[in-house]
């Protein structure tokens, strides 16, 4: 009657292990679905939610939990605990990132802006363009490499 993390629902000797496994399977399926739904529905622009790739993503969002319901009884209890806690951690991370840094054009961005209206949208677009420019190496003080430096394999930047 030893209870080990390597026991599975199908190989468990005790009812307690089977109950724990069943609860963990349900939690794993629910957290997997919720994590996928949170990422796709809340933090993706409307254009990304249309088309063949979006349809495939939707199918996977519903199919994978169904597959886990079927295969879950063969997973060891330790794997079920790991998977469920990892999903919960990921949900928390996604919640934080979506709330504090929403994808431009997503539902999360519209909710974050609240009643600011078009002025806030224009300011946000301007800020994103500024960041993009800095990210591409076009920050203030940078200049194009000289022809001779480029030929020699060196880059010259202003200090």
Automatic annotation (TrEMBL):
Feature: compositional bias, Basic and acidic residues: 133-143
Keyword vocabulary terms for this entry: Membrane, Transmembrane, Transmembrane helix
Membrane topology: Multi-pass membrane protein
Primary location class: membrane
Membrane spanning residue stretches: 16-34, 59-83
Subcellular location(s) per record: Membrane
InterPro entries: YidC/ALB3/OXA1/COX18 (IPR001708), YidC/Oxa/ALB_C (IPR028055)
Ranges for domain Membrane insertase YidC/Oxa/ALB C-terminal: 13-98
Region annotated Disordered, chain positions: 100-159
Subunit structure: Interacts with the Sec translocase complex via SecD. Specifically interacts with transmembrane segments of nascent integral membrane proteins during membrane integration.
Family: Belongs to the OXA1/ALB3/YidC family. Type 1 subfamily.
Function: Required for the insertion and/or proper folding and/or complex formation of integral membrane proteins into the membrane. Involved in integration of membrane proteins that insert both dependently and independently of the Sec translocase complex, as well as at least some lipoproteins. Aids folding of multispanning membrane proteins.
Descriptive protein name: Membrane protein insertase YidC
